[in-house]
Amino acid sequence: MAPSLIPKKPRERIKTDRRDALKLVRSLKSEDLTPIYVPEPEDEAFRDLYRTREAAMKDLKEAKYQLKALLLLNNIRNEGTANCSKKHLRWLTELILPHPAQ
């Protein structure tokens, strides 16, 4: 049971083990508490993989926006239609920007 889901009255500020135990017993008896799922290591590994993939996809999208902004700032237009095709990537590798620092 998640401790944050245990119902508590506003005037019950004093915390003792005895009161907590009695409150838990009453709540369990009246079925006010809901059980929580503790994830297995496999579940956590999948969640970590998913979060990492989402972060990588977000970073990729931001990098694409930055590249487009740099090209627009230098008034360089892409003649192709797709932004991440092989033809477009080849065009980017052959592109020479006006200043060496760019």
Specify the structural class.
mainly alpha
SS element count, helices: 3
Shape: rod-shaped
Residues in helices, as a percent range: 40-55%
What composes the largest sheet? none
Q: From N to C, what is the helix and strand string?
A: HHH
| Total beta strands | 0
Provide the β-strand percentage band: under 5%
Distance between the termini: 56 Å
Low-confidence stretches: none
Round the Cα radius of gyration to an integer and report it. Answer: 28 Å
Describe this structure in words.
This is Transposase IS110-like N-terminal domain-containing protein. It is a single chain. This protein is mainly alpha-helical and about 100 residues long. The chain has a domain at about 45-95. Helices cover about 55% and strands about 0% of the residues. The protein is built from 3 helices and no strands. It has helices at about 15-30, 40-75, 85-95. The radius of gyration is 28 Å and the shape is rod-shaped. The two termini are about 55 Å apart. The model has no long low-confidence stretch (mean pLDDT about 85).
Features:
102 residues, mainly alpha, transposase activity, Transposase IS110-like N-terminal domain-containing protein
Break the fold down into its secondary structure elements and pairings.
Blueprint: H1 17-29, H2 41-73, H3 86-94
Brief overview:
One of its GO terms (biological process) is DNA transposition. With 102 residues, the chain is mainly α.
